Structure formats: structure tokens, C-alpha cells
Amino acid sequence: MLPRAVLVERPTEYRQLLARHGTREQARFFLAQRDLELAEVEERHLRYEETRTRVLAAVPADWRRATVDRAELDRFLFGPDDVVVVLGQDGLVANVAKYLDGQPVVGLDPDPGRNPGLLVPHPPDALADLCADLLAGRDRSEQRTMVQARLDDGQRLLALNEIFLGHRTHQSARYVLDVGDAQERHSSSGLIVTTGTGATGWAASINAARGERLALPAPTDERLAWFVREAWAGPATGASLTAGLLAARDELTATCQLDEGGVVFGDGIEDDRLTLDWAQRVRIGVADRRLRLLV
Questions:
Q1: Quick one: DSSP state of residue 113?
Q2: What's phi and psi for 189, nearest 5 deg?
Q3: Rounded to whole angstroms, what are the CA distances from 135 to 61, 106, 274?
Q4: What are the average pLDDT values for consecutive 10-residue runs of the chain, which has 295 residues?
Q5: Pure H helices in 36-139
Q6: pTM recorded for the entire structure
Q7: Which domains are present in the chain?
Q8: Are 265 and 272 contacting, i.e. CB atoms less than 8 angstroms apart?
Q9: Rounded to whole angstroms, how far apart are CA atoms 230 and 49?
């Protein structure tokens, strides 16, 4: 069976404004109240639509096609023969990664210069050549390491960048952290476990604020880095076990000590989360899946 090209996208700022305000004039009025112009937002939208048209036209004519919005990813069924075409920001690749199992991902940057381009390294016009390479068996892809969290009731969550464990409102979270032979009871604003891909984002900011920085892993490195945010050393809590690296087969364990509000989520998608109850354990380590990113 020939591949199916699945275009993954998110609404443009213009479409989001229309969805919120109903009409173009209402959107213009809303922006004008904040000394902003609709013309710039509308121009970016039109450029995106032109790019989108070119991208769809570049898909081989005999391939099947589908499109999915970011908000619908958790309800979309990806097939084993899909070629996932992400048109948007780098974060959109992270959003879709957790729902894939080995399908090749083509990251296209619709607006070069506005995105870092780490996960969307290709210009849109490169899609035709990339599809031809795949059909010819020329697989130029990176296997990006992912991170997983497993609850003691069997639930699992995957992420490409990082996993966050803490309170859903980001207030102080209480848990017992076990890493190797070390254990410490924490009250902190959360625990971050990052991959090498995520090491350029949230984790980079946390690491930069530390006095003694960690050497963060590379995107294909089968190691993880972990950080405790704002650990508070109190009568019953410590602040010495706050950062480190996990080898490929190692895990850390966090045991929840919150009556309510405990959550685990990945890549900043708070709506797609696992809920933690008192005394529930979470094991976090390298996932058995990889993101197959065409480079």
C-alpha cells in the first residue's frame, strides 16, 4: 500500500482571532484597542495558506492524504504507513511525537527566520524530494530519544522534550524522590526530566540558572537530565538532591505526597496529563520509542 501523507498543523493567529471574535472586523477592533494592526497578522496567514497549498501539491499524486489539527492529535489514528508532515513551529513536532510509533516525520518551516528550525529544518519546497527519498529507500533520519513516565497503575505518558511532575497550578509540590541509592523528600515547584531534544528549551533555562551546570545530553543520546525546581530545605524536606543525569537503563522514582492537584504532563501539554494521588509512584526514564525525524 502506498504511503499516506498526514499534514499536521495548527491554526494561524488570524484563524484563532476569527474563532474568538467571530468576524474580521471584530478581530481588527480587538487588536486596535491594543495598538496592534490586523494587517500584519492577516499577511502572515495568507503567506501560510500559500505555503500550505504548495506543500499539499508536492505530495505524490498517488499517495493518500489526511490533515489533522494539533487539538485533534489525541483522537487521530496514525497508521504504520503514514508519512507525517509537520508544517509549523518546532513545538508542533513535539506535540505529535508522543502519538507516533516509528513513522517518519518531515518538519517543514513555513516562516523561516521566526522559528529556530531545530525540529522543522526543511523549507516547504523540499517536501517533493524528501518523499522521493523515502520511496527510494534513502532514509536520512535521526532517532530522537524520548522520555516516558509510568504510574504504578499502568498508565504511561511519552514526551519528546521533557516531562513535568508537580502540582497542576505549579505551586509547591510534595513528593519523595529516589535516584539510584539516594532519596530525599522534596517541597518544590516541580520536577523536570528532559531529553537531549528538550535540552535546548525549558531545561536549558533551568540549567543556566544553576551555579554548577550539567553537561546536557545530545538529541540522539540515550541519556536524560533531571532538575528539581526551587527545592525548599525545611524541617522535613531537603534541597541537596536537585539535578543529575540518567543513563539509558536507569530510572528515577517520585512518590506523590499531595492530597490533590498532582499531575504529570509532557511537552507543555497540560490538558493531556496523568493525575497523581497520595502515595502513587511514578517511574521516569528513557522511552522504548524514538522519534524518526528526517534531517
A1: T
A2: -90, 15
A3: 13, 14, 38
A4: 93 94 94 92 95 96 95 93 96 94 96 87 95 90 96 95 93 95 95 94 88 88 95 93 94 95 91 92 96 95
A5: 38-58, 90-97, 127-135
A6: 0.89
A7: 4-139 (3.40.50), 146-288 (2.60.200.30)
A8: yes
A9: 43
